[in-house]
UniProtKB/TrEMBL annotation:
Higher taxonomy: Bacteria, Pseudomonadati, Bacteroidota, Flavobacteriia, Flavobacteriales
Organism of origin: Elizabethkingia anophelis R26
SUPFAM superfamilies in the record: Cytochrome c
Name assigned to this protein: Cytochrome c domain-containing protein
């Protein structure tokens, strides 16, 4: 009986030390496919609006996954419309750092 209790305690200890996995983060590509004109407009918006109040980050400074929350936070400050935000997100995601 003592061995069963020790074995059970050992099993619980091992499971409590294991790392818990949570759902994998989305690695979806942007849904917006930009025309050449839209891409140029998105690049211009990024350079003018996103660099207006602070140093302009390079698109390759972050992964596409990381750019989404950045854009969600910064787009209202840059007074981007939803469409402009999506275009800029597509631009930076296209040029973003590749995930390892």
């Amino acid at each position: 009986m003592k061995k069963v209790i020790i074995a059970g305690g050992l099993v619980l200890f091992i499971f409590s030390c294991s790392t818990r996995t949570q759902g994998t983060a989305s690695t979806e590509k942007p849904v917006y496919k930009l025309t050449d004109q839209q891409f140029a407009t998105a690049k211009n918006l990024f350079e003018t609006r996103c660099g207006k109040c602070h140093d302009l980050p390079k698109p390759e400074d972050h992964t596409a996954e990381k750019w989404k929350p950045i854009m969600d936070q910064m787009a209202p400050k840059a007074k981007l419309t939803d469409e402009e935000k999506n275009w800029v997100l597509a631009y930076v995601s296209t040029n973003a750092k590749k995930q390892n």
